[in-house]
Specification:
The complex is a heterotrimer of chains A (369), B (280) and C (289). Chain B has 280 residues and is an all-alpha fold. Chain B contains 13 helices and no strands. Chain B is globular, with a radius of gyration of 23 Å. In chain C, helix 3 (67-100) runs parallel beside helix 8 (154-179), helix 8 packs across helix 10 (195-224) and helix 12 (243-252) packs antiparallel against helix 13 (256-288). Classes of the chains: A alpha+beta (369), B mainly alpha (280), C mainly alpha (289).
């Protein structure tokens, strides 16, 4: 089932929750909407479900224009953030609801409903809970009930609104893989709303990063990490040290942070450098300006070190053992610059470092050092 | 004896003083008046009291009271449910104003609640001449009693439902909509089961007030014995005629109604609590 | 790669302009609500707002400045404010005891607080009269010990109104008290406060907004109260005659406009008082935020 969203806008009072959002899903795709709270991802999901209505723009599901189609006629499965289970109905009754409220001529006979409910509960692996009430089962089980209930109406499009937020970390990891497996097995098209980048990266074929009502980048998880389109995306995806700096005469001034200056072809002005921990090497040096603030063993022999240079914190990797308070030297091997004018450069130092990668919008940066 | 942890616990002398004072207060303010009603009714034994209740005018008053309640309670239950649904499940301009207006009758004197209908339908009211021409009686007749009672008991059901439905939010209803349920199905299968105990308790309070209302019906009734006298009005007439045993006997009947209402309400709270207590 | 996904042009769809709601049924329920509210409450109250002006402004002023009318308004508002004020400490005590302590009879006490809600007002009036009459269970000892007479005096009006107003204070404060986190009180204890200091400086301020609500509700109910007052008041013009009774008197004289005038004055005056309470409460809330 294809999903086509064109130029959606939705304002609440003076603020725009959606500000010109377009998005297209292929059948069978799993797309995550990733962003901080207030970025508009839940609003987009509600518009798709027919629970909210855009001020502008168009939604097409399987080619059909959804304008004026109420939620109950869309046949879209929704797993709500806190599951929204019917608290006065048993698990089985919850799952059966979508079948029981069908118009009489399309409603399956009661025996058929019972059979389908059993099947669905087996599918989500909780057949033994049929007679329980939502407040008598655990969070993870509730999540399975919500999923079974949404699948009962045989949706081809499944919408998941932060479905793992209420689960503890251990259960969450396992349930994620299981849900993704279910998506593949049933041939669903799914959209997941989340603020957890790890969750989005692990589950989705493509991730749409949202900021202030816009999709700032829609890409595969790999591409998002390698070539973030904006400083916002770079900051949101994975861990990174963020260094604000000035560019004067094609030289990025980094001495303030105890790093070597970098030559690159960006115009004068303000810019930001993002350094992922694995792009920073920290070496013991009695003459170094930096001090080790904290040490975290990585298990592979190296340690992750948070260093402090005149009040700036930079995170990097160290091959040898260091202790808190030791003096050290910091060297960047690669990083991404985002200029104030919206352009960006991938930069990489010297031989041995990975080759410079192209940003999606700008020509290759010149290696410098 | 204290529900609090040790640090937030009150010293024993404070606890004992508070409990003693509270119990004393409850006895003087709530229990003694109740006891006085029954004692006065039985001052000359059971027989005169029972006779006063079974007398023809008293029976007519009971019938009329039941009739008025049987009309006003459903009207306000329906209105209250519709209002609570509209106000809690939708956003629209003027929502807050609507809630305020629904609660308005609570801050209007019962006498004024009767008065407004006299102003509309009374002999010298706005519609009085027209009604007289067409031989329709509202004031000093049953329709007036019903209208005044509906006014006085107007907010009870809406008021018990609105806070609860607000707290329950719209999630379950929205989930039902995505599963294909229409408006009536959503209301009947999702909303109503979630608020049924509160609805029942609102209806109970509404009914107690409807049967016991005095000021508003007093203004529109005209005190015609056997015809427009509800039980509370009958009590007043007997009292003013110095038939104290009769007055207190009928009053005892009304007091029993109040006690039954309290009992039923307490039971409802236990029932609703037990269902919710399953979570623990 | 489509970093500029949001730039895809799309034709704005006019069909989507109208704001709709996620759930069905707003039209039906709002229609029913407005019909119910309009027919039962708003139109009749409009009659009350219009009728008094038949007398003309000066005529209306004349009615309202009659000594008997002024005396009744003074009694109704004075007694209602006094009763609501008395209900505050009594209500706080009851709410505190019921929520914080476990003792035999607690559930009964809790249920009894609702009695004035459930007991018909005429019954309450009759009962209080019997209790406080010169030969009553409370009237006789009070007269013998202090020489006080309550029934058939303005004091009787206040007693009846306390009966009516008290539950509002208890029921407004109780839920707040129940939800008040105990850790604030425990924190106060760790900071060296005595239990009484904690109650005075931590608990009571937190209860103030709810107490004002209860005071307002109790006052609003008391000022218009009729059934429980007229039996015990004695109804002496100028002394113990409440304003609602005077409305009834004017109606019995078929002086609709004067009756409506007194009614309108009562409503406006009590709304002004409730508005003032509301503003006070709002200022408290803002100060806290």
């Amino acid at each position: 089932m294809t999903v086509d969203v064109e130029n959606l806008a939705r304002r609440f009072g003076g603020t725009a929750a959606l500000d010109g959002v377009s998005l297209a899903l292929e059948p069978g795709e799993f797309v995550a909407l990733l962003g901080p709270s207030g970025s508009g991802k839940t609003t987009l999901l509600r518009v798709l479900a027919g629970l909210d209505f855009p001020d502008e723009g168009r939604v097409r599901i399987a080619g059909r224009d959804m304008a004026g189609v109420p939620a109950r006629e869309r046949g879209v499965g929704v797993v709500f953030q806190n599951y929204a289970l019917f608290r006065h109905m048993s698990v089985a009754e919850n799952v059966a609801f979508g079948l029981r409220v069908r118009p009489r001529n399309r409603r399956p006979p009661e025996a058929e409903i019972q059979r389908r409910v059993r099947e669905l509960l087996e599918l989500v692996q909780i057949p033994e809970l049929a007679a329980r009430y939502p407040d008598q089962v655990s969070g993870g089980q509730r999540q399975r009930v919500a999923l079974a209930r949404a699948l009962a109406i045989e949706p081809q499009l499944l919408l998941l609104d932060e479905p793992f937020g209420a689960l503890d970390a251990l259960v969450r990891k396992e349930v994620r893989r299981w849900v993704r497996g279910l998506h593949d097995r049933l041939g669903l098209t799914s959209i997941l709303v989340t603020h957890d980048q790890e969750e989005a990266m692990e589950m989705a074929d493509r991730v749409a990063v949202m900021e202030a009502g816009r999709i700032v980048q829609l890409d595969t998880p790999d591409a998002l990490l390698q070539t973030p389109a904006t400083a916002f995306v770079a900051g949101f995806m994975g861990e990174a040290t963020r260094l604000p700096l000035c560019i004067r005469g094609r030289v990025a001034r980094l001495s303030e942070f105890g790093l070597d200056d970098v030559e690159l072809d960006l115009p004068d002005g303000e810019a930001v450098l993002f350094l992922r921990p694995h792009e920073v090497r920290i070496e013991p040096s009695a003459a170094g300006r930096a001090l080790v603030r904290s040490v975290r063993p990585e298990g592979t022999g190296g340690t992750r070190i948070l260093a402090d240079v005149d009040g700036h914190r930079i995170e990097g990797i160290c091959a040898v053992a260091l202790a808190r308070g030791d003096a050290c030297r910091i060297r960047a091997v690669s990083g991404t610059f985002f200029h104030g004018d919206g352009t960006s450069r991938r930069w990489s130092a010297g031989p041995g470092a990975p080759a410079p990668l192209d940003s999606s919008r700008t020509p290759s940066a010149s290696p410098a050092g | 004896m204290s529900a609090a942890g040790p640090a937030a616990a009150d010293p024993a002398w404070l606890r004992w003083t508070a409990v003693t004072l509270a119990l004393l207060l409850a006895v003087v303010i709530f229990l003694l008046p109740l006891a006085a009603v029954f004692t006065e009714a039985l001052r000359r034994g059971w027989e005169p009291a029972l006779a006063a209740i079974q007398e023809e005018d008293a029976r007519a008053a009971v019938r009329l009271t039941l009739l008025v309640a049987a009309i006003s309670v459903p009207v306000n239950a329906m209105g209250g449910v519709a209002a609570a649904w509209a106000v809690t499940k939708f956003d629209f301009p003027g929502r807050r104003l609507l809630i305020t207006l629904i609660e308005l009758p609570f801050s209007v004197s019962p006498v004024i609640s009767g008065l407004v209908y006299v102003l509309l339908f009374g002999a010298q009211g706005y519609l009085g001449p027209w009604l007289q021409e067409h031989d329709i009686e509202i004031i000093f007749a049953v329709p007036g009693l019903v209208l005044a009672t509906v006014f006085v008991t107007f907010p009870f059901v809406a008021r018990t439902l609105i806070p609860l439905m607000q707290e329950q939010g719209r999630d379950e209803e929205e989930a039902a909509a995505t599963l294909g349920a229409g408006g009536w199905d959503i209301f009947r299968r999702v909303t109503l089961p979630n608020v049924k105990w509160a609805l029942l308790s609102g209806v109970l309070l509404c009914n107690a007030r409807a049967m016991g209302e005095f000021g508003a019906v007093s203004v529109v009734s005209g005190h015609i014995r056997g015809q427009t006298n509800t039980m509370p009005l009958h009590v007043e007439i007997l009292y003013n005629e110095y038939m104290f045993v009769g007055a207190f006997a009928v009053a005892s009947l009304l007091a029993l109604l109040g006690l039954l209402t309290l009992l039923a309400k307490a039971l409802l709270e236990i029932l609703a609590g037990r269902r919710m207590g399953d979570a623990a | 790669m489509s970093a500029g996904a949001s730039l895809t042009p799309g034709a704005p769809s006019l069909a989507l302009r109208r704001r709709r709601h996620a759930l069905p049924g707003l039209g039906v329920s709002l229609g029913l609500t407005l019909a119910w509210l309009g027919l039962i409450v708003l139109i009749p109250l409009a009659a009350l707002a219009i009728k008094p002006w038949e007398l003309g402004p000066s005529g209306l002023l004349e009615v309202l400045s009659e000594p008997r009318v002024l005396a009744s308004l003074r009694l109704s508002f004075g007694a209602a404010l006094l009763a609501a004020l008395v209900s505050v400490p009594l209500g706080l005590l009851l709410a505190w005891t019921v929520t914080r302590y476990r003792f035999p009879g607690r559930r009964l006490l809790d249920a009894l607080v609702d009695l004035p809600f459930a007991l018909p007002t005429a019954v309450a009036g009759l009962a209080l009269t019997a209790l406080f009459a010169p030969n009553g269970w409370l009237g006789a000892p009070l007269a013998a010990a202090f020489g006080w007479q309550v029934a058939f005096k303005p004091a009787g009006v206040v007693v009846a109104l306390v009966f009516v107003a008290l539950p509002f204070v208890v029921r407004s404060v109780e839920p707040v008290l129940r939800d008040l986190p105990l850790d604030a009180e425990e924190a106060a204890a760790t900071l060296g406060a005595t239990r009484l200091q904690t109650i005075r400086r931590v608990v009571l301020p937190a209860l103030l907004p709810a107490t004002i609500t209860g005071f307002g509700l109790g006052f609003a109910r008391a000022v218009g109260e009729y059934g429980s007052v007229i039996f015990i008041a004695g109804n002496m013009p100028m002394v113990s005659e409440i304003a609602p009774l005077l409305i009834v008197v004017k109606l019995e004289q078929f002086n609709y406009a004067a009756a409506a005038g007194i009614g309108l004055a009562m409503l406006l005056l009590s709304f002004a008082i409730l508005l003032a309470l509301n503003l006070w409460q709002r200022r408290l809330r803002r100060g806290r935020a």
